[in-house]
Amino acid sequence: MKKVKKAIIPAAGLGTRFLPATKAMPKEMLPIVDRPTIEYIVEEAIASGIEDIIIVTGKGKRAIEDHFDRNFELEANLIEKGKLELLEKVNQSSKVEIHYIRQKEPKGLGHAVWCARNFIGDEPFAVLLGDDIVQAQTPCTKQLIDQYNETGSSVIGVQTVPNEETHRYGIIDPISTEGRTYVVSNFVEKPNQGTAPSNLAIMGRYVLTPEIFEFLSLQETGAGGEIQLTDAIQKLNESQKVYAYDFEGKRYDVGEKIGFVKTTIDMALENEEIRDELYEYLLKKVNELNITIK
């Protein structure tokens, strides 16, 4: 059985929820304190043992390539000033090979993954979406890779969401469970309100066998008129078992404004440099607004 060594990070979306900020800046480059969102995703892949990453980009995404490129002038400046710890942070992504391919048309997540088919070849691979940041003792992608190594089958990361939010996600219809692993009968993309078969939602982390490309190559459109990865996963599930895994860790939704703000506050409160001053500021704002903390 081949090891999971490659990962796809789709980053071709237009980021319309964050306009006008994303008119000229990729949403994946929006900073959470002092690091762009996509850096958290790349670092999770590295920590999970991934050796090669392909980032699927679109028009106006050149800043992503520039960010992960070497900047020798900057590095020399940091060395001269003795800022070696900051230099290590800047060069974190150099521990993995990063490649790029352009999704020429915005046809959906399934199409973005399909664009990377030649890079993946006949190997199993991970997919990490940039709208979800997961903090966990064991990296989320590593948890899924461990499950793949046990089962030899595709594994989809899931977590529980409130029933009223199930229409926003791909949802699984579980048959049985053993520990945190589910056998699944159906994967449903964004079911209509009140029709979801469960409240276990697909959360932007996947380990897939290369056979998924057979179904993505059909280019069939689904919800929203786009080529949906969830639909291809369901077809794959009909020919070979696809598991769901309720991964451990705290998931942050940075794909919407309020989730992005909450993530920024949480990350800032973990930053030793600014957390005390921020904490005092938040307490001051609570008092000014006369908010009762429950």
UniProtKB/TrEMBL annotation:
InterPro entries membership: GalU_uridylyltTrfase_bac/arc, NTP_transferase_dom, Nucleotide-diphossugar_trans
Record keywords, A-Z: Nucleotidyltransferase, Transferase
Top EC class, one word: transferase
SUPFAM superfamilies assigned: Nucleotide-diphospho-sugar transferases
Gene3D superfamilies: Spore Coat Polysaccharide Biosynthesis Protein SpsA, Chain A
EC assignment: 2.7.7.9
Highest taxon in the source lineage: Bacteria
Domain Nucleotidyl transferase: 6-261
PANTHER family reported in the protein's UniProt record: UTP--GLUCOSE-1-PHOSPHATE URIDYLYLTRANSFERASE
NCBIfam families: galU
Family: Belongs to the UDPGP type 2 family.
Protein name: UTP--glucose-1-phosphate uridylyltransferase
Organism listed in the record: Ureibacillus aquaedulcis
Lineage of the organism: Bacteria, Bacillati, Bacillota, Bacilli, Bacillales
